[in-house]
Amino acid sequence: MTIPRQPDEKPAVVLLVDDNPTNRYVLGTTLRRAGHQVVEAADGQEGLARAADPQVRPEVVLVDVRLPDMTGFEVCERIKVDPRTASLPVIHVSASAISASDRTQGLNRGADAYLTEPIAPSELLATVTATLRYTRARRRAELLADRLSLLNRTTLRLHSALSAEALARSATEGAAAVLACPVDVLLTGPEGRTTHFASAGPGAPAERIGSPSLPPELFERHPLGDAVGAAVESGPSAWPIPFADGDQEAERAVALARTKPGRPPAAVVVPAAAVPSSADTDLLTQLTHTTALALEALRSYDEEHTLALKLQRSFLPEALPSPADVELAVRYAPASRHAEIGGDFYEAVQTPEGLVLAVGDVAGHSLEAAMVMGQVRHALRAYALDGHRPDGIQTRLEKVLAVNSPVRAATLCIVQVERAAGVLRISNAGHIPPVVRSPDGTTTLLHDHGPLLGLDLPHPPPAEVPLLPGTEVVLVTDGLIERRGVDLDEALEALRAAVASGPVAPGAMCDALLAAFPPDGEDDVAILAARLR
User: Fold this and answer.
1) Element (H or E) spanning 532, and its range?
2) Which secondary structure element, helix H or strand E, spans residue 426, and what is its range?
3) Could you give the strand order of the β-sheet that contains 13-17, starting from the edge strand earlier in sequence?
4) Which helix H or strand E contains 437, and what residues bound it?
5) How far apart are CA 343 and CA 329, in angstroms?
6) CA angle, corner 58, sides to 54 and 61, nearest 5?
7) Which helix (H) or strand (E) holds 333?
8) Which site from 122, 153, 241, 378 is most exposed, i.e. has the minimal number of CB atoms within 10 Å?
9) Residue 38's beta-bridge partner residues?
């Protein structure tokens, strides 16, 4: 029975370095009859040049030990130290250097095998085949290790992506690096829009290609169908979309993956020639499945974040009161979809003693912080309606925070508009100072404050500001002005200046502040502006 030739034993390009034309003819004829392509060189320098020539790309080198310009040992050493040729196997051939010491020297100086002439054709071919088998297996293992390393780095990038666009870009560039080919990636993000990115090959940046839709007929004929998992199908392209390599007629390997029933799959498309083996197909499948997992995580986070935002907003006032003597406006901007919800809140309560305004922030960014915020706001409203002064409200809120485990701190600024006394009473528990603009345009930051809520410390009496018609008060949370690398005092002065030059109407003032300090998406922003008629 004849055993079929294995892939690692297939013919190769063989570089034959020998100064004797007869030897080159004999050895070359034997190799060519076995199917190998033979490239010849007559001396060491020519052999080294051809070994490093990218147009030649030999897989094995046969070197005569006796050459006119250098020994075969030197040729072997120089091949092994050159990064371009270090992986080339070298077989020494000699009719004169045939002693044990000669063979030992050749092997010690880098040769992979040593043959002495006369050489039986079968022995020459068997040695070349064995050398190729080992070298090709080693190269395949090294390539797989490199690809697995690239796949690992790509996986980390995929799971750190914060949007469908970033995910598609990372998947495209990662697949191009892992499979060393042009790549197209199509996926449907949480918002339902299909994103298509393409890369021309490893190292080429991924570019966005319009906003196509995934053709339904693809899923009908693809092995994955509507199942959960990942599958690859190779065949002629039938997609009416531009591919990264520009060839609309070439055969494609289309990998689809989903991790939850009913979801649009993630699609990674490469030329079919880029995945000739089962190992290549497995890599493509794994990369596509990882992309689908990261996409599902994005979808789940988006759904959870939307639900949490709805819950957070349910803790805030549905509407502001409409007192006859005070104009009010509020703006609330939640953190971006990629940030956790926070504990920023505002309140406006009309009481018999006057209007009570408040802006606060419960420490932390989580659903728990938002729930504590709701408790604090409702308790604040109840204490205000009971007629307590601002410092009395803060003292009582200490007990509300004390029932939470772990105990949470909070900042809170309360302004009481008391017409009968003709004053604004302001109690600030560690919050951003309120900004007051007098009727004459003088604008000040009221820095007087007491300790944070949650520390169970006494709160000082409120500061009092004369209540004059046209007086304006602006309360904000730290998300409006705090930025990494920006000094807080400088940010507060910028806030004061923005209020000083801002419009009179409270709503316009809020909009002007949002324009002057665009939210960075890292924290919630609350602005409450009031103007005495």
Assistant:
1) strand 525-532
2) strand 423-429
3) 37-41, 13-17, 60-64, 90-94, 113-116
4) strand 435-437
5) 20
6) 135
7) strand 326-333
8) 122
9) 14
Each as own residue / partner, the long-range contacts of residues 313-322 (CB below 8 Å, 24 or more positions apart, any chain) are: 314/374, 315/345, 315/370, 315/371, 315/373, 315/374, 315/377, 316/345, 316/346, 316/377, 317/346, 317/347, 317/348, 320/348, 321/348, 321/349, 321/350, 321/355
Distance CA 34, CA 27 (A): 11
Q: What is the mean pLDDT of each run of 10 residues along the chain (533 residues)?
A: 59 93 92 94 94 92 93 93 92 89 90 91 93 89 86 90 89 92 88 87 87 61 84 74 70 90 89 88 92 88 70 70 87 69 82 89 76 85 91 90 73 88 88 92 90 88 88 92 87 93 92 90 85 87
Distance CA 237, CA 250 (A): 7
CA distances for 458 relative to 64, 388, 511, angstroms = 95, 15, 36
What does the alpha-carbon distance between residue 337 and residue 316 come to, in Å, rounded to a whole number? 19
Helix or strand holding residue 253 (H, E)? strand 251-258
H/E element, 114: strand 113-116
- Cα angle, residue 260 at apex, residues 255 and 262 outer, rounded to 5°: 90
Please provide residue 60's backbone torsions phi and psi, each rounded to the nearest 5 degrees.
Answer: -155, 150
CA distance 56 to 13: 8
In which residue are the tokens 């880029």 written? 274
Q: Name residues whose C-beta falls within 8 Å of residue 336's C-beta, 6 or more positions apart in sequence.
A: 521, 522
Instruction: Please give the Cα distance from 91 to 76 (Å, whole number).
Output: 9
Map tokens 């393409």 to a residue.
198
Give the 3-state secondary structure of 18-69.
CCCHHHHHHHHHHHHHCCCEEEEECCHHHHHHHHCCCCCCCCEEEEECECCC
Which DSSP state fits 320? Answer: -
Tokens of 290: 């990882």
Q: Identify the residue whose tokens are 């029932």.
A: 403
